[in-house]
């Protein structure tokens, strides 16, 4: 058995080995990579990684705290206009990201964009990507292309 518990009809909150702080290596990778990519060690990130029986894909519930207040529709518009991001966020038609529909696609899909009612200046989102198409290697290439295009390297 690949897991200590059945994966079929289950969700297992355990991805990779546990570190001394009680987080898994995968969860701490999310923290460290975010800080590294944005070159800002002050960014506070927390994560709980869960194995869910899908063929492929990463799904994340993301909570972002801003310095200032924001307009949710403006955030949605910025995301909509960002290359490589597809906004799927229409509750009236039950449109939101799911791994089933992200499979085989290069974009990152964002939905369930809403204000966090428990914390000022904070936003919640649901983000899904095909982890075989969009991952560290693809991110590195896209960041390098952006830096070259912007004349920063």
What does this structure look like?
- The chain has a domain at 54-149: Dihydrodipicolinate Reductase, domain 2 (2-Layer Sandwich), CATH 3.30.360.10.
- It is built from four helices and four strands.
- Helix content is 26%, strand content 18%.
- Strand 2 (85-87), helix 3 and strand 3 form a beta-alpha-beta unit.
- A four-stranded mixed β-sheet has the order 1-4-3-2, covered by helices on one side.
- The protein is globular, with a radius of gyration of 17 Å.
- It has helices at residues 25-37, 72-80, 99-102, 136-149, and strands at residues 58-65, 85-87, 108-115, 122-129.
- It is an alpha+beta fold and 153 residues long.
CATH fold-level topology of the domain at 54-149: Dihydrodipicolinate Reductase, domain 2
Radius of gyration: 17 Å
Sheet with the most strands? 4 strands, mixed
Broad shape:
globular
**Euclidean distance between termini CA atoms:** 48 Å
Indicate the mean pLDDT.
89
Residue fraction in strands: 15-25%
Quick overview:
The protein has 153 residues and is of the alpha+beta class.
Provide keyphrases for this structure.
153 residues; alpha+beta; Dihydrodipicolinate Reductase, domain 2; four-stranded mixed β-sheet; 4 helices; 4 strands; 26% helix
């Amino acid at each position: 058995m690949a897991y200590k518990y059945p994966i079929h009809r289950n969700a297992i909150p355990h991805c990779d080995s546990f570190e001394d702080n009680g987080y898994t290596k995968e969860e701490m990778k999310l923290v460290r990579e975010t800080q590294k990519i944005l070159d800002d060690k002050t960014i506070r990130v927390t994560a709980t990684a869960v194995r869910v029986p899908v063929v492929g894909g990463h799904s994340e519930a993301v909570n972002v705290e801003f310095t200032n207040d924001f307009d949710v529709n403006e955030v949605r518009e910025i995301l909509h206009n960002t290359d490589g991001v597809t906004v799927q966020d229409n509750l009236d038609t039950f449109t939101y990201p799911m791994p089933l529909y992200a499979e085989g696609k290069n974009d990152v899909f964002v939905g369930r964009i809403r204000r966090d009612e428990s914390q000022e200046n904070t936003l919640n989102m649901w983000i899904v990507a095909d982890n075989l198409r969009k991952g560290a290697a693809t991110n590195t290439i896209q960041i390098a292309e952006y830096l070259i295009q912007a004349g920063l390297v």
